[in-house]
């Protein structure tokens, strides 16, 4: 019979299992006679590494009703040297929100970069949370712009859409693009408040794009994971594309954006473009 998870009991069991699975030699701790040790680290040693009391660790491992704060969970995760997946699991068990990293990816994970290339002829690109472009295929470059022509600091999809002279007239409904850009950046800003480059990007767009500044004050919030855009392409003509943004489980700080023609006319037009 399947039962619901008792998070307090599971948290206790998980902490014990990870503590007992550690090798004291990896921590440079004093060597004691093995006959006097439980497997792995002592509770006292975990408490010292995490900066909490021994009694607190004991109560957690005995499932005595404690709910550790996010700071304590972070300290325990560091002390137990948890993997990223284990760290997320611990935060979920403690019913705490895991702090967002403010160090966004600046390079594409190699398997994802290969996937972007393999998705051809569908235009695809890989981005981080602030929409910096990390990888793209030739079809994506043909659809929007050859991002390789830009300095790395300017390879941001929202910045390109709103500020680059070759894309100012690319989107038929520019107001929609502005609204979606503001909504996405607001969500990213809330999740990464210490990201200085993200803050600078928002300030630049607010100063340069009047519609962006006006929309920003209205505080729309939405992660743009799916939608449709009508484009006035200089070579292919009027084309409609659907986009889907996916988050890889192994690299959740990277976003995979895939584009597809919305209708048969657009499919034919884009095929001709890519065959050039």
From TrEMBL:
<dbReference type="InterPro" id="IPR010982">
    <property type="entry name" value="Lambda_DNA-bd_dom_sf"/>
</dbReference>
<dbReference type="InterPro" id="IPR001387">
    <property type="entry name" value="Cro/C1-type_HTH"/>
</dbReference>
<feature type="domain" description="HTH cro/C1-type">
    <location>
        <begin position="40"/>
        <end position="87"/>
    </location>
</feature>
<dbReference type="Pfam" id="PF17765">
    <property type="entry name" value="MLTR_LBD"/>
</dbReference>
<dbReference type="GO" id="GO:0003677">
    <property type="term" value="F:DNA binding"/>
</dbReference>
<dbReference type="Pfam" id="PF13560">
    <property type="entry name" value="HTH_31"/>
</dbReference>
<dbReference type="InterPro" id="IPR041413">
    <property type="entry name" value="MLTR_LBD"/>
</dbReference>
<protein>
    <submittedName>
        <fullName>Transcriptional regulator with XRE-family HTH domain</fullName>
    </submittedName>
</protein>
